Amino acid sequence: MIQILDSTLREGEQTPGVYFSPKTKLVIAQFLDRIGIDIIEVANPALDSEIAAINQIANAGLKAKIGTHSLCKIDSVKKALDCDVDFLGIFFSVSL
């Protein structure tokens, strides 16, 4: 089975000058869900300013799985899981 993962809401905001409001994030997530995306990656919950938007999308009743990422640290993983996401990618940072 092939699944499609979209990272617009996570990677897209890493472009200089790009910012999606929480309302815009929800509209984008709803559109991605409507066109059949299987997994939608949302922002990183390490940024407290992103938690409300992540929760809003995770609880919007979409068919797509909602995913996020976390550093490989217990407190970061817990913060991500508290957002009620379906998918969690854990990464190990090698920078200081």
Structural features, described:
The protein is of the alpha/beta class and 96 residues long. The chain has one domain. It has 4 helices and 4 strands. It has a 4-stranded parallel beta sheet with strand order 1-2-3-4. Helix 4 links the parallel strand 3 and strand 4. It is globular and about 35 Å long. The N and C termini lie far apart (39 Å).
Q: Any descriptors?
A:
globular, four-stranded parallel β-sheet, 4 helices
Quick structural overview:
The chain is of the alpha/beta class and 96 residues long.
Please give the structural blueprint.
Blueprint: E1 5-6, H1 8-11, H2 22-34, E2 39-41, H3 51-58, E3 65-71, H4 74-81, E4 87-91
Parallel strand pairs: 1-2, 2-3, 3-4
The quaternary state of the protein chains shown equals single chain
Report the strand count. 4
* Poorly predicted sequence stretches spanning 5 or more consecutive residues: none
Whole-number tally of structural domains: 1
**Strand and helix order:** EHHEHEHE
Q: Which overall shape is indicated by the principal axes computed on the Cα atoms?
A: globular
> What fraction of residues sit in β-strands?
15-25%
- Please give the order of strands in the largest beta sheet: 1-2-3-4
Q: Would you tell me the overall average pLDDT?
A: 92
Number of helices: 4
Computed Rg: 13 Å
